[in-house]
């Protein structure tokens, strides 16, 4: 498959000479999650759900950020930018650095020190970005990026750049194309709230174009320790082990509220324990290894079913925003490891496995 700007060129209406910077992002699998549906029926009695996970962790840099970055960096290139800059909890910086490298544009990154999953940091290093770690959280880093953007010498590629949201809409197009209609509910993690804003714009646009008969209820989930939108106040010291969504003052706050209200959906919060348990459930029962923040969507689905918010027989899409390999530390810390160290001896190993 070509990248998403090529795939949806008719919607993005790009000129023939538009300089697309692509790593063939998008077209990620929409995987039927029948173990999730069975679990919900057993625990909460909601029957006949068709649950799909949109595994955006299978993008070129391992997260959904590539969908927006292909467009933001293409546009930066078109405008002759020499530098792009972003604040990040990790995935945006990995993606920006990759597309920057591909475009021949220098990438500058500001990240909270010690709060970036190892895989993401390794990506930014390998792609050759210039990295500054600060003694401050993502929200502080984004404020600094906004200030540096005002110099006019760098192009900001955080989701305050409208091309990011435009590119990320494509995930909603793909889901509708594959299901031949929109789902009834869409569950998604919420950090800076760009992605929920983008999906809602995508679902609206497809509906307006007559490509779907309905629009889903948008169900967004923040981590409990940084639930700014749910609590309707900025969180000064956001905390969660799902570092990707460790954000206390979401830039697209209003977009998330509009998505919720216009779709008749909800923004809720899930605890670190609920996130960790969905994270494990997906790996052990579906064979899908996403990163912790991504599992907030499925944790939210469990919670909404328990609360009676989901109708029997519904079609449900859950975005899994990032790849589990991004954060090996969390996997090794939280996975229920069945591990042993034994001598290299057939009999001993046979006995250990009970064969
Ligand atoms: C895996 O990389 O904000 O609500 O700087 O990496 O659109 O912010 C990451 C966010 C969910 C939240 N899941 O999406 C960044 C950054 C994963 C993420 C989110 C992020 P938004």
Which structural traits does this protein have?
355 residues, alpha/beta, six-stranded mixed sheet, four-stranded parallel sheet, 10 strands, globular, binds ligand AN7
Low-confidence stretches: none
Bound molecule kinds, no repeats: ligand AN7
Helix content: 40-55%
What's the total number of strands? 10
N-to-C SSE series?
A: HHEHEHEHEHEHEHHEHEHHEHHEHH
Count of DSSP helices? 16
Backbone CA Rg: 20 Å
Span of the ends, CA to CA: 44 Å
**What about the largest sheet?**
6 strands, mixed
Q: Which outline best applies?
A: globular
Mean pLDDT: 97
> How are strands sequenced across the largest beta sheet?
1-2-10-7-8-9
Strand content of the residues, in percent? 5-15%
Please state the structural category: alpha/beta
Structural description of this entry:
With 355 residues, the protein is an alpha/beta fold. The chain is 44% helix and 14% strand. The strands form 2 sheets. Strands 1-2-10-7-8-9 form a 6-stranded mixed beta sheet, sandwiched between helices. It has a 4-stranded parallel beta sheet with strand order 5-4-3-6. Helix 5 (91-103) links the parallel strand 3 (83-87) and strand 4. Helix 3 packs parallel to helix 14, helix 8 (162-168) packs across helix 10 and helix 13 (272-286) packs across helix 14. The longest helix is centred in the middle third of the chain and has 15 residues, at 194-208. Ligand AN7 binds next to helix 5 and helix 10.
């Amino acid at each position: 498959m070509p990248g998403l700007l090529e795939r949806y060129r008719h919607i993005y209406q790009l000129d023939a000479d538009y300089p697309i910077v692509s790593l063939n992002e998008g077209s990620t699998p929409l995987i039927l999650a029948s173990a999730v549906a069975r679990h919900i029926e057993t625990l909460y009695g909601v029957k006949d759900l068709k649950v799909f996970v949109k595994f955006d962790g299978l993008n070129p840099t391992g997260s959904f950020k590539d969908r927006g970055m292909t467009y933001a960096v293409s546009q930066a290139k078109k405008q002759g930018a020499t530098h792009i800059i972003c604040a990040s909890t990790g995935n945006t910086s990995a993606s920006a650095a990759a597309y920057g490298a591909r475009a021949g544009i220098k990438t500058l990154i500001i990240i909270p020190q010690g709060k970036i999953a190892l895989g993401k940091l390794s990506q930014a290093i390998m792609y050759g970005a210039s990295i500054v770690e600060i003694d401050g959280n993502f929200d502080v880093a984004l404020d600094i990026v906004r200030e540096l953007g005002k110099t006019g010498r760098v192009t900001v590629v955080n989701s305050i750049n409208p091309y990011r949201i435009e590119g990320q809409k494509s995930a909603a197009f793909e889901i509708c194309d594959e299901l031949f209609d929109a789902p009834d509910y869409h569950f998604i993690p919420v950090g800076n709230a760009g992605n929920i804003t983008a999906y809602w714009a995508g679902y609206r646009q497809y509906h307006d174009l007559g490509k779907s008969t309905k629009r889903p209820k948008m169900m967004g989930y923040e981590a409990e320790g940084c639930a700014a939108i749910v609590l309707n106040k900025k969180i000064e010291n956001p905390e969660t082990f799902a570092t990707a969504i460790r954000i206390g003052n979401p830039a697209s706050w209003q977009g998330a509220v509009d998505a919720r209200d216009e779709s008749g959906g909800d923004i809720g919060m899930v605890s670190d324990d609920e996130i960790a348990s969905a994270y494990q459930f997906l790996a052990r029962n579906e064979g899908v290894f996403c990163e912790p923040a991504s599992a907030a969507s499925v944790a939210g689905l469990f919670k909404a079913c328990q609360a009676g918010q989901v109708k029997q027989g519904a079609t449900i899409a859950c975005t899994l925003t990032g790849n589990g390999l991004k954060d090996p530390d969390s996997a090794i810390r939280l996975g229920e490891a069945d591990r042993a160290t034994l001598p290299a001896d057939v009999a001993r190993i046979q006995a250990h496995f009970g064969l």
